[in-house]
């Protein structure tokens, strides 16, 4: 397959460690995929769905102890603890290699070792990077084929180079006590054991494209971010691109594929999806920031996805899609999840495969749900009706605005703009959001999640903040403008106030207007907030007083927030960039 000595040497080593019965190279060809699907079906790894309604679609159930990322078992193994920083679990690389090799030794016995050569980003693009993942799971192979560009061509592009990321996955016994997701950024290596769930095992995604790539970006002068990328086309046919960082299950997929309200569609506005989860960004020849989506598919949250909330995502799942941990409707052998429609299936198996009793469904009790709250679909990007023409081009799209956001029932206004890049970095560094089912642990707890990268930054977060500040210096007046949004303000009954979804376009239009110097704003202690009249409410049953209430900056609430940011910053000690401390002091002074 290849004469690359670094590849051959590593493969020999892992083969000797894992002792598979068979070794299979994955070339990504249709014939090979068809054969693997059949094998997965025969082994019970995947259930073939109704091929008339959902051609090429399958359902997979993970072990119930293995349904989300496991942040407490995720490690950054750098030479020193300081390099991993205060927000990551750290372990000495030698110690961790030994522990992981002991767990993985002999674990492919009686099994097949699949070797997956893949590219993150269009094959051959100067912004793309290459990885090789070894796995014993057909589910992983079939997901990687959707999520990345799997091809033997990747090996030609790689040639003799050692610039590729090693990924070793072994399902072992799916023992949660021995589950480890480990990154070795200085060795370009990832090892994941005892899991079979998405983000833990599709090693091109979070492990490579965020944790390892963020480290590479720091060393090489670019950025790997937990961001969607979308293009907004105006009636003149001009397209402006924005990138947005929201924590897991906080609305990236939805915003990336949104459909503008009718009155804007009628005027000629369109939204194009470039990416829904990860952005790699570099300064281009003209000095602007250019982004590519390194992925080739969407690993999206199923619950809540429907015709109305996210038509484009739903369409994307209509063929060649793998569903994980959703319910199986036995009447027509299709899938169902909470929020898909109002017809609770009467003859269905819930996500664990047991008979589901629809009469016991209680919205307040997730244990009565048919689908797991973090159930997902793995869908090819090419299925998406609004996929951008730029998606497969390796040159990237120029970014006009960067948007941070999260789930905050109170506090953060619907939208505001930072005073400048440095202030924007401060806003990103102080971001907080209520936790979701995307990671194991409590849900709904407010935590600081800087730039939505808390679980994904592959090095010291203080160095990461400094890297953001340095990128701003390099970009100068060509830097994207930085904003913050919050779709999740709630009323006293806990209902979302802002309608969200497609109506978020009204906010995006203000953001684009600000980038073009067309919209006014009110300067507040935290940044520039829109004048309520400048958020277009055409055709929306939403009164301007309510809008004013979610644009308001409450001094008491923000003083408490500033104090919490101060607490959050203590973690970083002296390593926190001086500039961010100055920004916090300025915020406090502004609030006086
Ligand atoms: P990851 O794939 O985990 O990184 O998540 P994501 O950021 O892509 O999240 P996604 O778009 O899948 O949204 C997750 C949840 O947020 C879904 O249940 C959505 O229905 C809900 N959601 C998305 N956008 C909005 C919005 O504008 N308003 C409200 N109220 N909910 C939203
Ligand atoms: C996230 O949790 O941010 C995801 C899903 O995008 S996973 O790939 O499982 O990490
Ligand atoms: Mn994500």
What does this structure look like?
It is built from 17 helices and 31 strands. With 592 residues, the chain is of the alpha+beta class. Strands 1, 4, 5, 6, 7, 8, 9, 10 and 11 form a nine-stranded mixed beta sheet that branches. A hairpin with a 4-residue loop joins strand 10 and strand 11. Helix 12 crosses helix 17. The chain starts with a helix and ends with a helix. The relative contact order is 0.12. Bound molecules: guanosine-5'-triphosphate (GTP), sulfopyruvate and manganese (II) ion. Sulfopyruvate binds next to helix 7 and helix 8.
Q: Give every kind of bound small molecule, once each.
A: guanosine-5'-triphosphate, sulfopyruvate, manganese (II) ion
Alpha-beta classification: alpha+beta
Q: In angstroms, what separates the terminal alpha carbons?
A: 66 Å
Mean pLDDT: 97
Give the low-pLDDT segments. none
- What value does the Rg take, in angstroms? 23 Å
Shape: globular
Helix content: 25-40%
The total of helices stands at: 17
Main beta-sheet annotation: 9 strands, mixed
Strand coverage percent: 15-25%
User: Number of DSSP strands?
Assistant: 31
